């Protein structure tokens, strides 16, 4: 049995949970945070980061490495497209959302609205939240541009770019960082993902001490 060491608002862990559920791989969730019990995490992953996936024999770290491992070993629900060009575009966009969206939107929101609340008990920095909101707006515009050209983010089929982007957006949305107004194409795309059974368990998960807005787990938002 695979065990995923993660916490509910880790967007990289969410990407793994979403992808493995699509593929029908069952995992047991083991709660761990990078800011507490760090020694145990570092013993599994020298980077001291979540997610870590292990089955007692094999330990896999880094969400993209985990997704690629399962895409190579489980045929169902392929995440990387059939052609080399589509695979390259999927990887490019997955890196974009894991680096740019995370760095400019998810990470500041996690720091201001989760970490400071739950761990350090400091007030959030309103300016950092405003900047994250502006960055989210630019990211949603880019999402709309991509959806103007393709049914899914990287091409005609659902894949790794959709998984990684939706995982980041779900955390930003939980932390009230997404203003959906004026982004109909992005909203339609996200609503389709929200309705997938593989995404539902993410939406029902809660981080202790941090409540999402009412629209967060609704299909009509
Ligand atoms: N490249 C890694 C990034 C993972 C990551 O940044 N995880 C965050 C939690 S969401 C973390 O553990 N941060 C603690 C740290 O970097 O020390 C992946 O894709 O798995």
Automatic annotation (TrEMBL):
Annotated GST N-terminal domain residues: 1-78
Stored PROSITE patterns: GST_CTER (PS50405), GST_NTER (PS50404)
GO cellular component: cytoplasm
Keyword Transferase applies: yes
Pfam families xref list: GST_N_3
Stretches assigned to the GST C-terminal domain: 83-216
SUPFAM superfamilies associated with the record: GST C-terminal domain-like, Thioredoxin-like
UniProt KW keywords: Transferase
Domain of life: Bacteria
GO molecular function annotations of the record: transferase activity
Entry-linked PANTHER family: GLUTATHIONE S-TRANSFERASE OMEGA, PTHR43968
This protein's name: Glutathione S-transferase family protein
Protein species of origin: Sandaracinobacteroides saxicola
Organism lineage string: Bacteria, Pseudomonadati, Pseudomonadota, Alphaproteobacteria, Sphingomonadales
């Amino acid at each position: 049995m695979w065990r995923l060491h993660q916490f509910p608002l880790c967007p990289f862990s969410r990407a793994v949970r979403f992808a493995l559920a699509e593929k029908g791989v069952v995992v047991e969730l083991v709660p761990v945070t990078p800011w507490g019990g760090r020694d145990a995490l570092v013993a599994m992953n020298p980077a001291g980061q979540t997610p870590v996936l292990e089955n007692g024999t094999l330990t896999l770290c880094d969400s993209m490495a985990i997704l690629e491992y399962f895409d190579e070993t489980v045929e169902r629900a392929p995440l990387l497209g059939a052609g080399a060009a589509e695979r390259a575009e999927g990887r490019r966009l997955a890196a974009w959302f894991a680096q740019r969206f995370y760095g400019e939107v998810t990470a500041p929101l996690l720091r201001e609205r989760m970490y400071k609340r739950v761990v350090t008990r400091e007030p959030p920095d309103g300016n950092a939240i405003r900047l994250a909101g502006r960055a989210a707006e630019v990211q949603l515009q880019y999402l709309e541009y991509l959806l103007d050209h393709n049914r899914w983010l990287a091409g005609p089929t659902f894949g790794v770019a959709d998984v990684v982007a939706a995982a980041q957006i779900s955390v930003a949305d939980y932390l009230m960082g997404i203003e959906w107004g004026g982004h109909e194409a992005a909203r339609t795309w996200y609503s389709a993902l929200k309705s997938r059974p593989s995404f539902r368990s993410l939406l029902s998960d809660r981080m202790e001490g941090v409540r999402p807005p009412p629209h967060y787990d609704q299909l009509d938002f």
